[in-house]
């Protein structure tokens, strides 16, 4: 199986891992789940995290073909359009972004000017769609449950699962956001478990399970099947749904959900500037 080079970048303020994935033969590459730094207190954005990835791509002599988000993130703002503006590549996400845009377009009262057809992106991946990063074969798998638009990208022997799975000692994604569903997540994970055991699994987040002192971002399908504390090979679907639903009811809302979703549903672009030249984020009261 083809083996891409994978470089991880960690944003500790949001516990997010972003990746540069490269074909060592052609030096073509993809960026997955980039982060735009955002200070919720001041409302200021920075590009430090994205610039670290950009500097790496340039230093390695890579040519960027894809700028991918695995889903509409609720815990960080995407830097995808900024990365694209510097390095090129196609801005891409799963085609079910339309469902997320429809739901949150209403929640944020985005108005008729906000297109709910995914047209903010250059490419919308379909389930099972095959594409390439350089000469390495890749496939996009629709793995919803955390959100309706979640995709797992299998690039050679590497699977980028977004928030669907965490390290085996930490478990699985929450399913209580609008459009999320624990039963759907269980079935999506079963699809991931059909990949070869040796498939490398790269995670979007880690929060250090109790007893573990370091952040981790990589595991394998085999390790997830054998040891995931929430769902492993042979786990009962009803037990998982019951566990996930009970656990989700105790979780607080992600700190950056409101700013993140209204930016990320626009492909990482800020809401349109108002007549004073300033862009504003909305906080819907008593809604979520």
Automatic annotation (TrEMBL):
Domain Metallo-beta-lactamase: 15-205
Species assigned in the record: Dyella japonica DSM 16301
Record-given protein name: Beta-lactamase
Annotated InterPro entries: Metallo-B-lactamas, Mito_Persulfide_Diox, POD-like_MBL-fold, RibonucZ/Hydroxyglut_hydro
Claim: RNA-binding is one of the keywords in the record: no
Annotated keywords: Metal-binding
Molecular function terms from GO: metal ion binding; sulfur dioxygenase activity
GO biological process, one term: hydrogen sulfide metabolic process
UniProt entry tagged with the keyword Metal-binding: yes
Lineage of source species: Bacteria, Pseudomonadati, Pseudomonadota, Gammaproteobacteria, Lysobacterales
